[in-house]
Amino acid sequence: MYNSVRKYFAQHQHLVLPGIGRFSVETKPAQIDPATRIITSSQKKVVFTGDKLPAEKKFYDFIADDLKTDEVQAIRLFTNFTSQLRDELNQKNNIYFKGIGTLTKQTSNVILFQPDEIPEQFPQLPAERIIRKNITHTVRVGEQEKTSEEMQAALNQPQAIKKERWWIAAAILAAIGIASIALYYLMH
Length: 188
Hints:
Strand content: 25-35%
Mean pLDDT: 85
Radius of gyration: 39 Å
């Protein structure tokens, strides 16, 4: 029975043991850490809740198919299996499920769960920006998209050197100011 239960859990990612609780697999998505520039792969974790739920019909169908028996016999076998688990938990205060984790009984209503470590499927990857020279790609400039070649051409064009001529306007204004002051003193 134990192997059938493990198969079901591996295929469906959840398992209800009536009178004990529910196991499920939660997946933490892959993440990018900009500070360390590392991409971590998604991680799976087995979670236990002490919900006293009944087993599902598809679970009994799976057990009956796996044990090559009818559904009534599968229900009977599974009920005996769960009552043996509860008795073992009451006597030893802990049960180990290979590949899932360890259940430890604290009080009559409190069961703690320590999951087995699930190894990472993929290693951490560096998240460095790759810049290749002489490869054409699109660049967004304001509201427009241009190719990298167009932007290089625009940036490498010699710019017309504008001569600063602000001083001409300043000289004209200074000459008008001096002339108006001179005219004022000549009249008075």
